[in-house]
Design goal:
alpha+beta; Thrombin, subunit H; globular
């Protein structure tokens, strides 16, 4: 009886895993960006980190911090050396989780924050689209 239950459980997990792999729930394709692209949340950059991936619906970035509540409702996206800046993009934080085992060299905590864009202006959409076309290094 126990063997049958374990086999059934393994089969169930395998099927769920297969089903979740095949379905992509995102509206937009995600794109990877080069090393020098950064994101700051809020008027005083309460969170500042490196952009991991981006699409027309939102973005994800990594930062070092505590994961305290976000004191900002917008992000600024920029590149080092001043090659790009997109400011005041209204957002909603979707997740903010610790990246386990990535910052073992110090007591600092590496986190991954994902945000959804609330409403992009026509100019912001155009600039974001142009940025993805000119600076992405492939699909994420």
């Amino acid at each position: 009886m126990v063997y049958f239950s374990l086999c059934t459980l393994q089969y169930t997990f395998k099927r769920v895993s297969e089903m979740t792999k095949s379905k992509e729930h995102r509206k937009h394709k995600r794109f990877q960006l080069p090393q020098g692209v950064f994101v700051g949340i809020g008027p005083h950059f309460t969170k500042l980190g490196r952009l991991r991936d981006l699409n027309m619906g939102g973005l994800a970035f990594r930062y070092i911090g505590s994961g305290d509540s976000t004191n900002g409702s917008y992000v600024d996206i920029f590149m080092d050396e001043g090659h790009f800046f997109l400011g005041n993009v209204l957002i909603k934080v979707i997740s903010d989780v610790e990246v386990v085992g990535k910052a073992s060299f110090s007591s600092a905590t590496l986190r991954r924050c994902a945000v959804k864009f609330k409403k992009l202006t026509r100019q912001q959409k155009a600039k974001l689209k142009e940025f993805i076309e000119n600076h992405s290094v492939g699909e994420a």
